[in-house]
Structure formats: structure tokens, C-alpha cells
Amino acid sequence: MVGAGGREHALCWALRRDHPGITLLTAPGNAGTAELSTNVAIGAESIPELVALADMERPDLVVIGPEAPLALGLADRLRERKLAVFGPGAAAARIEASKAWAKEVMAAAEVPTAASRTFGNLRDALGYIDAHPEPLVVKASGLAAGKGAVVCATRAEARQAAEAMQVEGELGEAGAVVVIEAFLEGEELSLLAITDGRDLRLLPAAQDHKRLEEGDRGPNTGGMGAYSPVSLETATLLTKARSRVFEPTLEELARRGTPFTGVLYAGLMVDHAGDPWVVEFNCRFGDPETQVILPRVTEGLLGALEACATGAPLPRLTVSEDAAVTTVLAAPGYPSRPVKGAAITIPDIMPNGSFVFHAGTARGADGVLRTAGGRVLAVTGVAETFAEAQATSREGAALIEFEGKQYRGDIGWREAKRSGTGSGPRR
């Protein structure tokens, strides 16, 4: 397992749950993966060192979690060594690594998405913004850890966002090229497909919460929580997503000589007519969506990952009808300047049906668990109903202690509003 976040801990947990006898290595891992696997102190972007580790261990399967090593070609390097790898090659990973290229792919495949233009210099970008209807969206074309899209209510806000990316270098190289697109009306939905490039298995849909504060206020983050299932996930919507989004995209990628194997993540906007529009594609499991989806996938996960890596037929996935809600606990100062090093206390007894997934955690030589990143932990509650799962997740998040802890108590507030159960933002 390559990666160090909550996604990788959840993947290790799910694989170990389904197959207790497997041997896991995680590079570099965190304090949570250390309880399930052997952590190896090699960074997820240290490609030569990871290749050397794989040469030495000759694993039956390599699962690459984050987008950065995929974009850097780790999957390609490992496949050259005849290893079974779950994750796309660098060329196909451009579906996330270059939003500009992803827009080209979608246009060629006639995938529904917002009208957009791409700009490599600020002058042309500002000229386009000045003539664009409000609201509008400014996106960094490159990898920005989930923080590269800015929804702008006014052209003035859009100008500021473009200047921050292209002049001030707020997002580094990721913001050197920007995509400016029309604002899509509707509700967002995360839909992930495990695919061998031809066949696919849809995972349960989830809804992410990007804003730091309750009521969807505050700065954009990598994700403060998620829930699944989502009542927007109807059979009709899934059929449309398969036929209008996933299948034509996979066909276009194959036509370009860049077949995609792994997880194709579609960030969708579902409009008022129930039609899906693509906001973005990612080339890997989402975070925190993985922490809320995998507890509901009770059978078939490892088989599906292996099948994609080896070319075997994709097995069916068994999905529980239970609801799941994940609440992310973040460090003080997150997302701009997270403060690290605080001691963490996780009670020995947590609420029934709760699971704690580690992200930015580390255990020092003194044995004390400490914060080591912006998003520190995720507490997933699983129960028969959404309201029960939400309450379990929120209760578990409240019990964990570290200085300056930030979390939202309203994850799933839209679902609560629709169903009349559960809780909305605290006032």
C-alpha cells in the first residue's frame, strides 16, 4: 500500500477485515496503518525507493493510494517489472493531474460538463473573467490536494483567485495554468468506479463536505467529512452516470492510447432534472469518501483490485444497506497552516458502530500519539439509519481529544434536511 492518509488506512482496514491472513506493507503509512501492516519509511513520491522496495519484496499486489505517485509514473515503473499494480499509468492519471487535458477528453467524449476555457497567462485569463457571467469557477489545472477549485460569486473574486494562482503562486506549479468555467447549479455527488478500462463496478455514492465550517462556510479543504448512501443516488441516476460519464470517458481514454485501470472518481453535479454533470475527475480513491464507502463494501474489494491489476474478470461487489457518516478531525490552523505535534487521546471505548481512521498521525519514540498533518483522524459511524450513523460519528469525534481540534458536527446536513432526521449545523 502506497500512501500515508486516511484513505490508505481505510483500504488496509477493509482488506484486512475481508482477508485477515494477508501480509501488508505500507509506505510510508501512519500510526493507524502501523496497527494493521508493517510501515516502511519511504515517501509516497519517492519513486526510485518504492521501485527498489517492490523489487525486493515482489508483492502479489501493489495498491497506489494518492494521485501524486500515479502522476509521477509509479504504476508504469512497477508494471515494467511485471508486478500487479492497482492504479493508472501516468498518461491516464492526467485525467486528474491536468484539468485542462481532462476537459479536452470530456469534450471529445461528449461528456456533460461546464463550459470552460484554459489560460496559461494572467492577462488572457482576466480578460475572459471580465466578460464572463457571474458566478464562475476558477480552477488550478494541476494537482492541488483537493483545494484547487474556487467558486466565485463575482468577477472580482474570480480575478483575485486567478491572480493568487498565476502571480502569487499560491498553489505552486499546479496553478500556473487555470481553467475558468461556468458555475453549475445542483448538488454534488462523488461516484467512484473500479475499472479495468472496459468493464466497471460502481461503488456506493457519497457526498463530501469541502468547507471547513458548519453550514458550508469557511475556506475550502481537502474534505471535512462525507456520508453514504445519498438519496440522490437513484437507479436512474446511476444508469445515466454509467452511460453518459464513465463509459464514454473510458472509451475516449482507450482511443487515445491511454487506457485507464484503477479507480475513476467522478465528482458530479446533479442538476434539478436529475442529470449528472462532471465537475472533475480524479484518478484514485477519494479522501474522505473512502473512509465512508469501504465500511459499506462487505465483499469483493480485494478481488476487484486484483482483477484490475491482472486482467481477470471483475467480480461483483457486495454492498451493505447500512448508512455511514465520516467526520474528519483537523489540526488547528488547517487548511492554511496546520499546527502539528499535539498529543492525541482516543478513548479505549468508542461508540458502538464507530471506526477511527488515522490520517495525519505519528507515534513518537515516547509512544505518544501526536498530530502530524492537517487532517488528523476520521471517525466513521455505521448504523441502520442515516440519523444513527450521523450521531455515532459525531459522538465519536467529540470524544477524541487534542489541542485545537476542529471538526464539523453537521456532516450530512443536506440528507438530514431531505429526510427530516439527523442534525444540521449547530447554531
Describe the protein.
The protein is α+β, with helices and mostly antiparallel strands. Among the domains are: 2-89, Rossmann fold (3-Layer(aba) Sandwich), CATH 3.40.50.20; 115-182, ATP-grasp fold, A domain (Dna Ligase, domain 1, 2-Layer Sandwich), CATH 3.30.1490. Helix content is 31%, strand content 24%. The chain is built from 13 helices and 24 strands. The protein has helices at 6-18, 47-57, 67-71, 74-80, 90-97, 99-109, 122-130, 155-166, 235-255, 289-293, 301-310, 386-399, 413-419; strands at residues 2-3, 25-28, 38-39, 62-63, 85-86, 116-119, 136-140, 149-152, 178-182, 187-195, 200-202, 207-208, 211-213, 217-220, 225-228, 262-270, 276-282, 297-299, 318-319, 323-330, 354-358, 361-363, 369-371, 375-383. The strands form 8 sheets. It has a 5-stranded antiparallel beta sheet with strand order 12-15-20-24-21. The protein has a 4-stranded antiparallel beta sheet with strand order 6-9-7-8, with helices on both faces.
What is the topological layout?
Blueprint: E1 2-3, H1 6-18, E2 25-28, E3 38-39, H2 47-57, E4 62-63, H3 67-71, H4 74-80, E5 85-86, H5 90-97, H6 99-109, E6 116-119, H7 122-130, E7 136-140, E8 149-152, H8 155-166, E9 178-182, E10 187-195, E11 200-202, E12 207-208, E13 211-213, E14 217-220, E15 225-228, H9 235-255, E16 262-270, E17 276-282, H10 289-293, E18 297-299, H11 301-310, E19 318-319, E20 323-330, E21 354-358, E22 361-363, E23 369-371, E24 375-383, H12 386-399, H13 413-419
Parallel strand pairs: 1-2, 2-3, 4-5
Antiparallel strand pairs: 6-9, 7-8, 7-9, 10-11, 10-16, 12-15, 13-14, 15-20, 16-17, 18-19, 20-24, 21-24, 22-23
